[in-house]
Design a protein that fits this description.
Blueprint (H helix, E strand, L loop, with lengths): L6 H4 L12 H13 L5 E4 L6 H13 L7 E5 L6 H13 L9 E6 L6 H13 L4 E7 L7 H6 L1 E4 L5 H15 L2 E2 L1 H11 L3 H14 L2 E2 L1 H7 L5 H12 L3 H13 L5 H14 L4 H19 L4 H17 L1
Parallel strand pairs: 1-4, 1-5, 2-3, 3-4, 6-7
Helix pairs in contact: 2-3, 4-5, 8-9, 8-10, 11-12, 11-13, 11-15, 12-15, 13-14, 14-15
Length: about 325
Amino acid sequence: MEDFEIWVEKYRPRTLDEVVGQDEVIQRLKGYVERKNIPHLLFSGPPGTGKTATSIALARDLFGENWRDNFIEMNASDERGIDVVRHKIKEFARTTPIGGAPFKIIFLDEADALTADAQAALRRTMEMYSRSCRFILSCNYVSRIIEPIQSRCAVFKFKPVPKEAMKRRLLEICEREKVKITEDGLEALLYISGGDFRKAINALQGAAAIGEVVDAETIYQITATARPEEIGNLIDTALKGNFMEARQLLDRLMIEYGMSGEDIVSQLFREIISSPLNEKVKVYLIDKLGEVDFRLTEGANERIQLDAYLAYLSSLAKK
């Protein structure tokens, strides 16, 4: 096993055929490659679903070995002001494509971080240099991209990577890296990733570095994640009216696992949704959990808020 390479980069897709779990998107993009022409593109979806990898793979398939000459990648969250659009982006866009390529590609990652003024300036730049340059914008929230830009792009929505597709690729990586992984370890990887392939590969590499066999215990430890059954036990204990016992379980999650309030809220939400609880009870629990999540976002004390949530669950039992 080669410890000095970051597996996320090592196993990054080189062509569109290697992109995992986005079959519909890839089929549409292959049509553009066959015609050797693409419109402006807007990729939206959760983190770790392959937006950046697909953009680079598309450039490789279009331009071949010299793809770097006609492709530039920029992170809009680092350089988000109007000056970047007016100078850096415009300078690249106005130059002639190299090596006989029909156009250049500018890839703007995290484009939803661009200010409204910068997006307005970008809209005009996209129009002026459409003959020599194509834009690929990537974002987590398409609603944060102004309508005039959305209407100029073909929108592709990336979904969380399906479990089966992720499972096949993770087993392939384990085989190539000679990593032994148990069935429960693989299930734990799928659980903690939540469809985020990048998170799954990073967790696998971290777990492989500290033990000969990757099992569920190692995965939960390396990612500071509680087991689903522990979160389920916390909910059940509180719903039975055992507030102090539930509080001790919460202590263990926060102290031994080092989990933050946001981490626990996120896992509580997942477990409530998948639990066999009555639907009416689920409505009450999620409604209250939404309040806790909002308060934590606004900077409230996480321990007080989580204790208050457990107190609410315990009070439901008495009703």
